Amino acid sequence: KTYSIAVIPGDGIGPEVTDGALTVLAAAQRTFGFSLDFTDYDAGAQHYLRTGNLWSADLAQQLRTHDAILFGAMGDPAVEPGILERGFILAMRQAFEQAVNLRPVKLYPGVETPIAGLTPERCDLVIVRENTEGAYVGQGSTIHANTPNAVAIQESVNTRQGITRVVEYAFKLAASRRKKLTLCHKKNILIEAGKLWQEVVDQVGSRYPQVQLDYVHVDAMCFHLPVSPERFDVVVTDNLFGDIITDLGAVIQGGLGVAASANLNLDGSAPSMFEAIHGSAPDIAGKGWANPVGAILSAAMLLAHLGEEQAALAIEAAAVGVLQKLPALAGPDMLMSTEQIADAVAELVTTN
Ligand code: NAI
Ligand code: MG
């Protein structure tokens, strides 16, 4: 079987960690008997500075021909913050209806976490973030702008259909894991949105009697997540709360170097996109210091999404094997370069 993969390396360490992921994917295809056909796309801050192009209908049409998208990172100090986030990443999520942002929060053995006493057994959860609606629809207005009476109104849009598809996904995932689903919101204050979210969770939940339901306010989540992550199996939440608590999740699991993510299109109408959660890290770009494990684990999620579960599990196991040998996850103290780490993971994928 051959899969066609679009590769968007982007800026800074994006191309470096993407190269690492491609090395590991190449090893996996030899070992597990499928083949991957890669097509590179130039996009991101450098591309934008050169051409003025961000997301476009033409690019969307080309990307649609692929089975999945492997994404590095975008960003450059020369591009004003927000241009690429809204002009490319949010645009892709919305155009390709990537309804779910999937973020495993897993502490791997040997990885240093800032949470004292935390063990891998206690930290294995998945955050399911709604990825196309909420406060990120970009709707709002400012009344009396540039006056002492300015009022900025930022809307959060929550549709039953949008919530339902994410909640259905979260229940299915929970049913396949430890059978516990937590809704994270702020329904005591954001009463309109909170009511609809809880209603949908209760409705879908009636079809999943085996899944235990829980509710946690987002502020309380910021306390419980680092202190007792074992309380959570699958957490479902809206776009804004999800953006915030997934960064907290990354801290708990040992930092940006290891955290992976998927932006999933659930109905097969467009490709899903897979990326490490870190940015372009201009401070360490070009030095060979970037940890490629987040990108490698994202590539494993890509294979799992395509149905190559065995290869995905082998890559995860190999990454864990290499992580255990790394004294530091990033920076000048790292004993292995980006390339050496990727080579070591690839080697374990083929020999295990
Ligand atoms: P960042 O994630 O790029 O870097 C934050 C810190 O973590 C830096 O000190 C960096 O050196 C370190 N770091 C990140 N990834 C690492 C890795 N794999 N190995 C070792 N160290 C790593 O976030 P920052 O600095 O806030 O943003 C830099 C640029 O990236 C900005 O232009 C920002 O807009 C963009 N960005 C893009 C994202 C994306 O493409 N999805 C996500 C986040 C930020
Ligand atoms: Mg974020």
TrEMBL record:
GO function term, MF aspect, one? 3-isopropylmalate dehydrogenase activity
Q: Which Gene3D superfamilies match?
A: Isopropylmalate Dehydrogenase
User: What is the enzyme's class at the highest EC level?
Assistant: oxidoreductase
This protein's source sits in the domain of life called Bacteria
Q: Which cofactor does it need?
A: Mn(2+); Mg(2+)
PANTHER family, sorted: D-MALATE DEHYDROGENASE [DECARBOXYLATING] (PTHR43275:SF1)
Name used for this protein in its record: 3-isopropylmalate dehydrogenase
